[in-house]
Amino acid sequence: MKAIGFYQHGEDLNVLQVLEVPEPTPGPDEVLVRVHYAALNRLDDWVRRGWKGLELHLPHILGSDMAGEIVAVGSDVEGWQVGERVVANPGWWCTHCEWCERGEHSLCRSYAIYGEHKPGMYAEYVTVPARNLVRVPPDFPLEQAAAAPLVYLTAWRMLFTRARLRAGERVLVVGAGGGVNSAAIQLAKLAGAVVYVAAGGPEKVNFARQLGADVVYDYHHQAWWKAVYSDTDKRGVDVVVDNVGEVTFTHSLRALAKGGRLVTVGATTGPRSNADIRLIFWKQISIVGSTMGSQAEFRAAMDAIFSGRISPPVDSIWPMEAYPEALQRMLRGQHKGKIVLRVADEAHR
Asked: What is the pTM of this model?
Protein backbone atom coordinates (compact mmCIF):
# COMPACT_ATOMS: atom_id res chain seq x y z
CA MET A 1 0.00 0.00 0.00
CA LYS A 2 1.00 3.65 -0.37
CA ALA A 3 1.99 5.81 2.60
CA ILE A 4 3.79 9.10 3.27
CA GLY A 5 6.91 9.08 5.43
CA PHE A 6 10.69 8.95 5.46
CA TYR A 7 13.68 6.61 5.79
CA GLN A 8 15.80 9.16 7.64
CA HIS A 9 15.31 12.40 9.54
CA GLY A 10 16.28 15.62 7.79
CA GLU A 11 15.79 19.37 7.65
CA ASP A 12 15.03 19.19 3.94
CA LEU A 13 11.57 18.19 2.74
CA ASN A 14 13.30 15.95 0.18
CA VAL A 15 13.50 13.20 2.82
CA LEU A 16 9.70 12.81 2.50
CA GLN A 17 8.64 9.99 0.20
CA VAL A 18 5.65 8.09 -1.08
CA LEU A 19 6.39 4.74 0.52
CA GLU A 20 5.34 1.27 -0.57
CA VAL A 21 4.77 -0.69 2.63
CA PRO A 22 2.83 -3.85 3.55
CA GLU A 23 -0.83 -3.48 4.44
CA PRO A 24 -1.16 -3.90 8.23
CA THR A 25 -3.14 -6.69 9.88
CA PRO A 26 -5.36 -5.83 12.85
CA GLY A 27 -4.56 -7.39 16.20
CA PRO A 28 -7.25 -8.98 18.37
CA ASP A 29 -8.38 -5.63 19.85
CA GLU A 30 -7.87 -3.56 16.69
CA VAL A 31 -9.72 -2.61 13.53
CA LEU A 32 -8.36 -2.08 10.03
CA VAL A 33 -9.49 1.23 8.54
CA ARG A 34 -9.34 2.30 4.92
CA VAL A 35 -8.31 5.94 5.18
CA HIS A 36 -10.28 8.40 3.06
CA TYR A 37 -8.83 11.63 4.44
CA ALA A 38 -5.94 12.58 6.74
CA ALA A 39 -5.01 15.97 8.16
CA LEU A 40 -1.71 17.79 8.65
CA ASN A 41 -0.34 18.93 12.00
CA ARG A 42 2.81 20.85 12.88
CA LEU A 43 3.88 17.70 14.70
CA ASP A 44 4.65 16.25 11.25
CA ASP A 45 7.46 18.74 10.77
CA TRP A 46 9.02 18.15 14.18
CA VAL A 47 8.99 14.37 13.71
CA ARG A 48 10.56 14.65 10.27
CA ARG A 49 13.38 16.75 11.71
CA GLY A 50 13.73 14.48 14.74
CA TRP A 51 15.19 15.15 18.19
CA LYS A 52 17.45 13.43 20.69
CA GLY A 53 15.66 10.48 22.22
CA LEU A 54 13.15 9.95 19.41
CA GLU A 55 13.72 6.39 18.24
CA LEU A 56 11.59 5.22 15.33
CA HIS A 57 11.30 2.06 13.29
CA LEU A 58 12.17 3.16 9.75
CA PRO A 59 10.63 3.83 7.35
CA HIS A 60 8.32 5.91 9.52
CA ILE A 61 4.79 6.80 8.41
CA LEU A 62 3.65 10.30 9.39
CA GLY A 63 0.19 11.62 10.27
CA SER A 64 -1.98 11.72 13.40
CA ASP A 65 -5.49 12.39 12.04
CA MET A 66 -7.68 10.36 9.73
CA ALA A 67 -11.25 9.50 8.87
CA GLY A 68 -12.30 6.44 6.95
CA GLU A 69 -14.26 3.20 7.02
CA ILE A 70 -13.69 -0.07 8.82
CA VAL A 71 -12.71 -2.92 6.48
CA ALA A 72 -11.79 -5.61 9.04
CA VAL A 73 -12.10 -6.18 12.79
CA GLY A 74 -9.91 -8.14 15.20
CA SER A 75 -11.06 -11.35 16.85
CA ASP A 76 -11.81 -9.70 20.22
CA VAL A 77 -13.54 -6.58 18.89
CA GLU A 78 -17.20 -6.15 19.77
CA GLY A 79 -19.66 -3.44 18.80
CA TRP A 80 -17.98 -2.43 15.54
CA GLN A 81 -18.85 -3.58 12.01
CA VAL A 82 -17.18 -3.53 8.61
CA GLY A 83 -18.35 -0.50 6.64
CA GLU A 84 -18.79 1.89 9.58
CA ARG A 85 -17.39 5.39 9.12
CA VAL A 86 -15.01 6.36 11.93
CA VAL A 87 -12.44 8.75 13.31
CA ALA A 88 -9.85 7.77 15.90
CA ASN A 89 -8.25 9.31 18.97
CA PRO A 90 -4.63 9.88 17.83
CA GLY A 91 -3.20 8.70 21.16
CA TRP A 92 -2.24 5.22 22.36
CA TRP A 93 -2.47 4.18 26.03
CA CYS A 94 -1.79 0.91 27.83
CA THR A 95 -5.15 0.65 29.71
CA HIS A 96 -3.62 -0.78 32.92
CA CYS A 97 -1.18 1.71 34.52
CA GLU A 98 -2.29 3.93 37.42
CA TRP A 99 -3.08 6.84 35.11
CA CYS A 100 -5.12 4.75 32.67
CA GLU A 101 -7.10 3.29 35.57
CA ARG A 102 -8.00 6.88 36.53
CA GLY A 103 -9.13 7.61 32.97
CA GLU A 104 -6.15 9.97 32.44
CA HIS A 105 -5.08 8.31 29.20
CA SER A 106 -2.72 11.07 28.04
CA LEU A 107 -0.73 10.65 31.28
CA CYS A 108 -0.22 6.92 30.61
CA ARG A 109 3.31 5.74 31.41
CA SER A 110 3.54 4.31 27.88
CA TYR A 111 1.58 7.06 26.11
CA ALA A 112 2.31 7.43 22.39
CA ILE A 113 0.91 9.45 19.50
CA TYR A 114 0.22 8.00 16.08
CA GLY A 115 2.53 9.63 13.56
CA GLU A 116 5.04 10.56 16.28
CA HIS A 117 5.99 7.50 18.32
CA LYS A 118 3.95 4.97 16.31
CA PRO A 119 3.34 4.55 12.55
CA GLY A 120 0.85 7.18 11.50
CA MET A 121 -2.25 7.80 9.43
CA TYR A 122 -0.86 8.92 6.06
CA ALA A 123 -1.50 5.50 4.58
CA GLU A 124 -4.18 3.76 2.57
CA TYR A 125 -4.86 1.42 5.50
CA VAL A 126 -4.18 1.79 9.23
CA THR A 127 -4.82 -0.30 12.33
CA VAL A 128 -6.01 1.29 15.58
CA PRO A 129 -7.43 -0.13 18.82
CA ALA A 130 -11.21 -0.28 18.71
CA ARG A 131 -11.25 1.65 22.02
CA ASN A 132 -9.99 4.72 20.12
CA LEU A 133 -12.91 4.94 17.70
CA VAL A 134 -15.83 7.33 17.41
CA ARG A 135 -18.52 6.90 14.76
CA VAL A 136 -18.95 9.56 12.08
CA PRO A 137 -22.62 10.34 11.35
CA PRO A 138 -23.79 9.23 7.88
CA ASP A 139 -24.25 12.76 6.55
CA PHE A 140 -21.08 14.28 8.02
CA PRO A 141 -18.23 15.02 5.52
CA LEU A 142 -15.27 12.72 6.15
CA GLU A 143 -12.80 15.42 5.14
CA GLN A 144 -14.13 17.62 7.94
CA ALA A 145 -14.10 14.72 10.39
CA ALA A 146 -10.43 14.09 9.56
CA ALA A 147 -9.61 17.72 10.36
CA ALA A 148 -10.77 17.42 13.95
CA PRO A 149 -9.19 14.73 16.17
CA LEU A 150 -5.80 15.94 17.39
CA VAL A 151 -6.51 19.66 17.62
CA TYR A 152 -10.02 19.52 19.07
CA LEU A 153 -9.04 16.81 21.56
CA THR A 154 -6.06 18.93 22.59
CA ALA A 155 -8.07 22.15 22.83
CA TRP A 156 -10.90 20.49 24.77
CA ARG A 157 -8.64 19.14 27.50
CA MET A 158 -6.53 22.30 27.56
CA LEU A 159 -9.48 24.64 28.09
CA PHE A 160 -11.95 22.63 30.13
CA THR A 161 -10.02 19.98 32.07
CA ARG A 162 -6.74 21.79 32.69
CA ALA A 163 -7.58 25.54 32.59
CA ARG A 164 -11.10 24.94 33.98
CA LEU A 165 -12.61 27.62 31.76
CA ARG A 166 -15.99 28.93 32.91
CA ALA A 167 -18.76 30.85 31.15
CA GLY A 168 -18.27 34.59 31.34
CA GLU A 169 -14.50 34.47 31.69
CA ARG A 170 -12.15 36.27 29.33
CA VAL A 171 -9.82 34.19 27.16
CA LEU A 172 -6.91 35.34 25.01
CA VAL A 173 -5.72 33.02 22.22
CA VAL A 174 -2.28 33.87 20.85
CA GLY A 175 -2.50 33.00 17.16
CA ALA A 176 -5.41 32.10 14.92
CA GLY A 177 -4.32 30.16 11.83
CA GLY A 178 -3.16 26.91 13.42
CA GLY A 179 -5.43 24.02 14.24
CA VAL A 180 -5.28 24.08 18.05
CA ASN A 181 -5.77 27.84 18.22
CA SER A 182 -8.71 27.87 15.80
CA ALA A 183 -10.27 25.03 17.81
CA ALA A 184 -9.62 26.93 21.05
CA ILE A 185 -11.38 30.05 19.71
CA GLN A 186 -14.46 28.04 18.78
CA LEU A 187 -14.60 26.00 21.99
CA ALA A 188 -14.04 29.01 24.24
CA LYS A 189 -16.86 30.84 22.50
CA LEU A 190 -19.07 27.76 22.76
CA ALA A 191 -18.40 27.71 26.51
CA GLY A 192 -19.68 31.29 26.89
CA ALA A 193 -16.32 33.03 27.27
CA VAL A 194 -15.38 36.44 25.89
CA VAL A 195 -12.66 35.64 23.36
CA TYR A 196 -9.68 37.86 22.50
CA VAL A 197 -7.25 36.83 19.76
CA ALA A 198 -3.82 38.01 18.63
CA ALA A 199 -3.59 37.19 14.92
CA GLY A 200 -1.02 37.91 12.21
CA GLY A 201 -2.27 40.01 9.29
CA PRO A 202 -5.67 41.05 7.92
CA GLU A 203 -6.62 37.59 6.62
CA LYS A 204 -5.95 35.92 9.97
CA VAL A 205 -7.76 38.74 11.77
CA ASN A 206 -10.84 38.17 9.60
CA PHE A 207 -10.52 34.40 10.06
CA ALA A 208 -10.48 34.77 13.86
CA ARG A 209 -13.62 36.89 13.68
CA GLN A 210 -15.32 34.27 11.51
CA LEU A 211 -14.53 31.66 14.15
CA GLY A 212 -16.34 33.77 16.74
CA ALA A 213 -13.65 35.92 18.37
CA ASP A 214 -15.03 39.02 20.08
CA VAL A 215 -11.87 41.18 19.93
CA VAL A 216 -8.98 40.62 17.51
CA TYR A 217 -5.57 42.34 17.37
CA ASP A 218 -3.12 42.25 14.47
CA TYR A 219 0.19 41.45 16.15
CA HIS A 220 2.07 42.83 13.15
CA HIS A 221 0.86 46.31 14.09
CA GLN A 222 -0.14 46.19 17.77
CA ALA A 223 1.44 45.33 21.08
CA TRP A 224 -1.47 42.99 21.76
CA TRP A 225 -0.63 42.38 25.42
CA LYS A 226 -0.82 46.12 26.10
CA ALA A 227 -4.04 46.41 24.09
CA VAL A 228 -5.62 43.56 26.07
CA TYR A 229 -4.64 45.21 29.34
CA SER A 230 -6.10 48.52 28.20
CA ASP A 231 -9.29 47.01 26.75
CA THR A 232 -10.03 45.16 30.00
CA ASP A 233 -9.70 48.32 32.12
CA LYS A 234 -6.22 47.25 33.28
CA ARG A 235 -7.57 43.97 34.60
CA GLY A 236 -6.32 41.42 32.07
CA VAL A 237 -7.87 38.15 30.94
CA ASP A 238 -8.61 35.05 33.01
CA VAL A 239 -7.01 32.54 30.63
CA VAL A 240 -4.30 32.83 27.99
CA VAL A 241 -3.76 30.08 25.42
CA ASP A 242 -0.13 30.38 24.32
CA ASN A 243 1.41 27.65 22.17
CA VAL A 244 3.90 30.02 20.53
CA GLY A 245 6.48 29.80 23.33
CA GLU A 246 9.64 31.84 23.63
CA VAL A 247 8.59 34.87 21.61
CA THR A 248 5.27 35.47 23.38
CA PHE A 249 5.41 33.82 26.80
CA THR A 250 6.36 36.89 28.85
CA HIS A 251 3.81 39.05 27.03
CA SER A 252 1.13 36.44 27.74
CA LEU A 253 1.89 36.58 31.46
CA ARG A 254 1.47 40.36 31.38
CA ALA A 255 -1.93 40.02 29.68
CA LEU A 256 -3.29 37.88 32.54
CA ALA A 257 -5.48 39.12 35.34
CA LYS A 258 -4.58 38.42 38.96
CA GLY A 259 -5.23 34.75 39.62
CA GLY A 260 -5.19 34.05 35.87
CA ARG A 261 -4.12 30.85 34.13
CA LEU A 262 -1.71 30.49 31.22
CA VAL A 263 -2.24 27.16 29.46
CA THR A 264 0.13 25.74 26.87
CA VAL A 265 0.37 22.64 24.71
CA GLY A 266 3.38 23.67 22.64
CA ALA A 267 6.30 25.99 22.02
CA THR A 268 6.49 26.66 18.28
CA THR A 269 9.15 29.39 18.53
CA GLY A 270 11.28 27.61 21.12
CA PRO A 271 11.14 26.05 24.60
CA ARG A 272 12.94 28.68 26.69
CA SER A 273 11.52 31.71 28.47
CA ASN A 274 12.98 34.63 30.43
CA ALA A 275 9.74 35.14 32.32
CA ASP A 276 9.85 37.39 35.37
CA ILE A 277 9.11 35.06 38.29
CA ARG A 278 8.02 38.02 40.41
CA LEU A 279 5.16 38.62 37.99
CA ILE A 280 4.00 35.02 38.50
CA PHE A 281 3.88 35.05 42.29
CA TRP A 282 2.69 38.65 42.71
CA LYS A 283 -0.26 38.17 40.36
CA GLN A 284 -0.73 34.59 41.64
CA ILE A 285 -0.66 33.22 38.11
CA SER A 286 -1.00 29.50 37.36
CA ILE A 287 1.03 28.09 34.46
CA VAL A 288 -0.74 24.98 33.20
CA GLY A 289 0.60 22.37 30.81
CA SER A 290 -1.61 20.06 28.78
CA THR A 291 -1.10 17.30 26.22
CA MET A 292 -3.66 15.51 24.04
CA GLY A 293 -6.50 13.99 26.11
CA SER A 294 -8.53 10.96 27.21
CA GLN A 295 -11.07 9.01 25.21
CA ALA A 296 -13.88 10.63 27.22
CA GLU A 297 -12.54 14.07 26.27
CA PHE A 298 -12.22 12.94 22.65
CA ARG A 299 -15.83 11.81 22.58
CA ALA A 300 -16.97 15.10 24.10
CA ALA A 301 -15.05 17.14 21.52
CA MET A 302 -16.30 15.08 18.58
CA ASP A 303 -19.87 15.25 19.90
CA ALA A 304 -19.66 19.05 19.85
CA ILE A 305 -18.63 18.81 16.20
CA PHE A 306 -21.03 16.12 15.03
CA SER A 307 -23.96 17.85 16.76
CA GLY A 308 -23.23 21.00 14.73
CA ARG A 309 -22.35 23.23 17.68
CA ILE A 310 -18.94 23.94 16.11
CA SER A 311 -17.51 23.31 12.65
CA PRO A 312 -13.83 22.49 11.99
CA PRO A 313 -12.52 24.87 9.31
CA VAL A 314 -10.85 23.12 6.37
CA ASP A 315 -8.28 25.28 4.61
CA SER A 316 -7.66 23.10 1.57
CA ILE A 317 -7.62 19.49 0.33
CA TRP A 318 -4.59 17.99 -1.44
CA PRO A 319 -3.83 14.65 -3.11
CA MET A 320 -1.62 12.46 -0.95
CA GLU A 321 1.28 12.69 -3.37
CA ALA A 322 1.31 16.50 -2.97
CA TYR A 323 2.01 16.25 0.76
CA PRO A 324 5.34 18.19 0.62
CA GLU A 325 3.60 21.15 -1.04
CA ALA A 326 0.74 20.99 1.47
CA LEU A 327 3.26 20.92 4.30
CA GLN A 328 5.03 23.98 2.91
CA ARG A 329 1.73 25.87 2.97
CA MET A 330 1.39 25.05 6.66
CA LEU A 331 5.01 25.90 7.53
CA ARG A 332 4.68 29.28 5.79
CA GLY A 333 1.64 30.07 7.92
CA GLN A 334 -0.56 30.52 4.85
CA HIS A 335 -3.35 28.25 6.07
CA LYS A 336 -6.58 29.18 7.83
CA GLY A 337 -7.83 26.01 9.43
CA LYS A 338 -6.75 22.46 8.70
CA ILE A 339 -4.96 21.23 5.59
CA VAL A 340 -6.31 17.82 4.54
CA LEU A 341 -4.96 15.03 2.34
CA ARG A 342 -7.26 12.95 0.14
CA VAL A 343 -5.99 9.39 0.56
CA ALA A 344 -8.67 7.08 -0.89
CA ASP A 345 -9.06 6.73 -4.63
CA GLU A 346 -12.35 8.19 -5.81
CA ALA A 347 -13.45 4.80 -7.16
CA HIS A 348 -13.18 3.26 -3.69
CA ARG A 349 -14.91 6.01 -1.71
From this structure: 0.93
